[in-house]
Amino acid sequence: MVEKITPMSKDFNEWYTDIIQQAQLADYSPVKGTMVIRPYGYSLWEGVQAYLDKKFKETGHENAYFPLFIPNSFIQKEAEHVEGFSPELATVTHAGGKELEEPLVVRPTSETIINHMFAKWIKSHRDLPMLINQWANVVRWEMRTRLFLRTSEFLWQEGHTAHKTQEEATSEALQMLDIYAEFAENAAGVSVVKGIKSANERFAGATTTYSIEAMMKDKKALQAGTSHELGQNFSKAFEIQYSDENNELQHPFQTSWGVSTRLIGMIIMAHGDDKGLQLPPKLAPTQSVLIPIIPNEDSKSVVLETVNKLHEELRESYRIKIDDRDNISPGFKFNEWELKGVPLRIEIGPKDIEKNSVVFSRRDGVDGKNSVSINEVSQKLKDNLDDIQSNLLETSKNFRKDNTIHVDSKAELIDTLNSTPGFVTCYWDENTSDEIEIKDLTKATLRCYLLDNEGSAKAVNNESVEGKKAIFSKAY
RNA sequence: CGGGCUGUGGCUCAGUUUGGCUAGAGCGCUUGGUUUGGGACCAAGAGGUCGUGAGUUCGAAUCUCACCAGCCCGACCA
Predict the structure, then answer these.
(1) Among A23, A62, A251, A357, which one is most buried in terms of CB atoms within 10 A?
(2) Which pTM was predicted?
(3) Residues 130-189 of A with CB under 7 A from strand B
């Protein structure tokens, strides 16, 4: 049932695919580039949804649903948007046995259809701000795909908003970026950097793109969420106009922001190890698993009784499971639940019951195996889960810091990127051709300019000006 | 789309060089039994158009041609 996982050190990519399939998060589907998200993986996604959906609603957004099919002409309306997306569009040309008069595009993102509707709904300054989110699937025909990180169809959430002023749109985009960062750190336990994308990496049609960037265990960067200021690009292209307080027609300022099932890839690659997944307690579908140990027929009833009683007590506050399969040895179960990343395992056998205790074993390996008095289980479980959650974040933060190098010259930048995996920071003067040069020489890209910019210094690519602090790294 | 590799039970593969009897193994699966504190064991059983099509041949998993699919590397990307 469970095969050996390729060690991370031997081949990170293989490790990643092995883990996903063996932990039953997802499986390949018959259509190239698409995947099936299995219940265990989907349950993780539901955790992500529940957490974020609550935050979106707390900040005044409402969910809606827009259709999958978009008239081809809509995509053409915003010049940069067309250019950015046309290579990866899937188009429906036939339906109902006939060729369609106008082809339908399967949404790669919903800016166009949503803004078309906004144009109908926004007539007065009293209609603003318009704060809409949708949970949906989107399709981008990718040449090279990877489970969760890049598949032709994926699940995501896309927020779309319209505001009276540029300032309001800016603070909306930043607010959502903060929510993403807060989610990554507090729920997923992954330390992230907030930044602004260079023009070269910006979303097609945006005036500013903000992102959160995380470091995976192979020291590559992963863009984990983006939030865009769209300025008036779309409101002009789609003729969204409202009458302001002075009865003058205005185009609103807009934002859009999204995170996808890619976050699951982030969790896998940020916390996993050679034993398998390591899930943050706040998102783990199963926070703890109870494993009865039954060495003989005599002990069977008392062990199962104790386990069931404990389960009844704990299930009120925790996502907890009993593994009472009797055709599988305990050792096998230990390995299997470790593979699945369950944060804490509780073993219960006759020896424990004699002492009125149980054995705790943490997935992160802290403390080894620990005997816990049975009437303290609930409290200790909470303490341990909290501790595991914060340790994951701490570990992730230290890992990123330990693998980030600052450089002061362009030569050093190139050298470091070529010799050392990880993030390389430097002061940089925005310049697309310099950026492309670095990419050609090192395969690394400018991930972002740090949002929390510390000081300034001469740019490594132009010593006559002050640069902005930037991160370069190889990325997913 | 270019370069490299691979298609044989659910999975990993052997068999292909040198065509030959009923296509094998391990794992997994099913049933029964014994087991259970770090990946248990015994017994019986189910499961295969050998990627697809054509060709050569008395005979093709094996040789030839075409096609299809997948993986890795490059251009594209949440």
Answers:
(1) A23
(2) 0.94
(3) 140, 142-146, 149-152, 154
